[in-house]
Amino acid sequence: xxxxxxxxxxxxxxxxxxxxxxxxxxxxxxxxxxxxxxxxxxxxxxxxxxxxxxxxxxxxxxxxxxxxxxxxxxxxxxxxxxxxxxxxxxxxxxxxxxxxxxxxxxxxxxxxxxxxxxxxxxxxxxxxxxxxxxxxxxxxxxxxxxxxxxxxxxxxxxxxxxxxxxxxxxxxxxxxxxxxxxxxxxxxxxxxxxxxxxxxxxxxxxxxxxxxxxxxxxxxxxxxxxxxxxxxxxxxxxxxxxxxxxxxxxxxxxxxxxxxxxxxxxxxxxxxxxxxxxxxxxxxxxxxxxxxxxxxxxxxxxxxxxxxxxxxxxxxxxxxxxxxxxxxxxxxxxxxxxxxxxxxxxxxxxxxxxxxxxxxxxxxxxxxxxxxxxxxxxxxxxxxxxxxxxxxxxxxxxxxxxxxxxxxxxxxxxxxxxxxxxxxxxxxxxxxxxxxxxxxxxxxxxxxxxxxxxxxxxxxxxxxxxxxxxxxxxxxxxxxxxxxxx
Length: 486
Fold this sequence. Notes:
Blueprint: E1 5-8, E2 27-34, E3 41-44, E4 60-63, E5 73-81, E6 88-92, E7 103-107, E8 124-125, E9 128-129, E10 137-140, E11 145-148, E12 165-169, E13 178-181, E14 186-188, E15 195-204, E16 213-217, E17 223-230, E18 239-243, E19 249-253, E20 256-258, E21 265-267, E22 274-278, E23 281-283, E24 290-292, E25 297-302, E26 305-307, E27 314-316, E28 323-328, E29 331-333, E30 340-342, E31 354-356, E32 359-361, E33 368-370, H1 377-382, E34 386-388, E35 391-393, E36 400-401, E37 408-409, H2 436-439, E38 469-471, E39 478-480
Parallel strand pairs: 1-10, 10-12, 11-13, 12-15, 13-15, 14-16, 15-17, 16-18, 17-19, 17-20, 18-21, 19-22, 20-23, 21-24, 22-25, 23-26, 24-27, 25-28, 26-29, 27-30, 28-31, 29-32, 30-33, 31-34, 32-35, 33-36, 34-37
Antiparallel strand pairs: 2-3, 2-7, 3-6, 4-5, 4-7, 5-6, 8-9, 38-39
């Protein structure tokens, strides 16, 4: 069975006269009644032609029922009756409230928002599960803009049978959808498993930047954050991502995080599983790019760019828990402190930690810093650490600390860009000569400048190119990110 894609467009949609899935021109009326058995049969007596409405589950019926926690959206599985003056009988998959009459309804068209009192029921229905079911998608079209004043709590879980619940922008949209939150607090707090958020931009217009977090993840699993842009220098968030209550499986990929008032990604409570952080940009955040401060985790950090952040590119501050880190194919450039710092003690480091084909250039502290107690070459070797094929150039505090060159295999320490003069310059190749990624990176075992680009992926909305040249996620052409200290 097909499942609905609820279309959202602030310029052309309606939150009262459209369901968002069905005929392009919405059908609507004021005379709908449900059966008294299970609410799955809806009788419509308005003079309207429903003969062209799909019955494969892809069309949705919006039934206005203001009672708390009552379903307002359901997908259509059958239509009978009509059209010669008789009533239409519409069968839905999940069921509205039993015995309703005289209700307004709509099928098709586009909704105008995700955050209005009616549209928000797709995501969260009066503190209960939203009406969107596993496999449903809520899609904001090109140019959609919206201001939301309070936290949105996606509660119902997707599953592995019918699929994820997805909130997305249209892939390849000419103008990326923008959601602006006006609260100094959380924007989205996912509370259900198997959600995907992708292909849109987020801003925060509150003047106070002390608690606004774009995503505050709870004890959920298999949640994906993909191609999300959070970078406005004025309408900035405090943090892009924060965890509470122990999520177990997080994927953050192809995202652009810049100008955050604190760190971009903060793991500050139990992460019982894996955090995949791949192909993202962390640029000019006030503190760290990634901060981990409490309890166990496995990090898969690959293909990211950490540049000009006010703290470290990545900072692991937990000194008492076991953590495993795979750090491959990243760029750490011009951060005020270290490129990558771990304050963890050697006694709590699980093997292996792998640092492969990363670039540490012009960081104000150390390139790769193991600042925790008891670290030394013999400890790193005994734990199975692999530090290989990395490039180090002009890090103020040295290439690494806590270990020596004996632990670093096949490293490069030459000027990475034939004209890269200082930490305030870019190495995108626009003005400084040879592209860093395709010059010093090429020919080292792990193909950072060869067959696997930073951000390499097959999707049209992913970051793709090397040398900090990326496709703006969600469409809009190619953006060259020039790393200059502003």
